Amino acid sequence: MNTYGNQRISLAHGSGGKLTHDLIKDCFLARFKNPILSELTDSAILNLKGINLAFTTDSYVIRPLFFPGGDIGKLAVYGTVNDLAVVGAKPLYISCGYLIEEGFNSVSLDEITQSIGDAARNAGVLVVTGDTKVVEHGKGDGIFINTSGIGVCYYQLLQDIEVGDKVLINGPIGDHEIAIISARGELGLDVKIESDCAPLADLISHVLTASGKIKFMRDPTRGGLATTLNEIVTSKDLGILIEEKAIPIREEVRAVCSLLGFDPLYLANEGKVVIIVGCEDASLVVDTMCAHSLGRDAQVIGEVVESPKGRVCLRTEIGGTRIVDMPVGTLLPRIC
Ligand code: MG
Q1: Please, what are the domains in the chain?
Q2: Reported pTM
Q3: What is the distance in A from the centroid of ligand 1 to the CA of 106?
Q4: Ligand 1 centroid, distance to 308 Cα (angstroms)
């Protein structure tokens, strides 16, 4: 029996956390079984006539459609571009599929489309194919967007993560999810936080040019830093130890988290990349990121350790250690 067999799909199955992973493993991987998919990287790596291409797809269902720092269109372009960039590819082409609810405002549609065009130009990709579907009023929620993307791999990440490797991030965590919570207005919060939504390909190309010791990269979106770090060590013969005091978090985000009881490690980001690098290149990579506008607050936040195996641990500011698990549920649905 699989772990979702007798249940109905819940919002948590789309959270990026444990239930999403169970669904992927027990339903999708089981049926689509092939060595490329099984890698579970942000983009599939396809070898076509000797050239390595990266190929990825993502759907965007965010509410509200417009939020401080972005909108669903910008998010749809940058999210897909970032999934190509983190596997060492230069993003080139994207598709754009619209699922529109009958009655949706054409001014908003135009604004979102303009935003997709601007974001694509900014990220150096072309929208080369697309699709439009309209569903009856009440059968959608305004608009959903799917983007797929293709890029050429110019860098092959080293696969041998080992004890002593450093864990890096390019800036403060949690901005995107707190911006969305605030924009929804449901919790009576009025914080001046913008989503960090940004294209990471240029920053990443600087990093990959500077260092030949990059072993792994992932953008910690749904499920946040905690989920990404757990994905790195799950079923591996090593663990990760992160230092609470080294993790960059804005004061405003920290304040909302303590007010609402959220753990910032689980908050979604849309312009962050987690990098595992050989320890000898860690400060070089931090310096390289700090010199880029999207990496000003880059930090070493932890390292790969021998034990506990398969686990992520956090050393707290007061010196204790706790396990950081993969999230089971979701703080907030529809954040990307
Ligand atoms: Mg990703």
Answers
A1: 41-153 (3.30.1330.10), 166-323 (3.90.650.10)
A2: 0.96
A3: 30
A4: 25
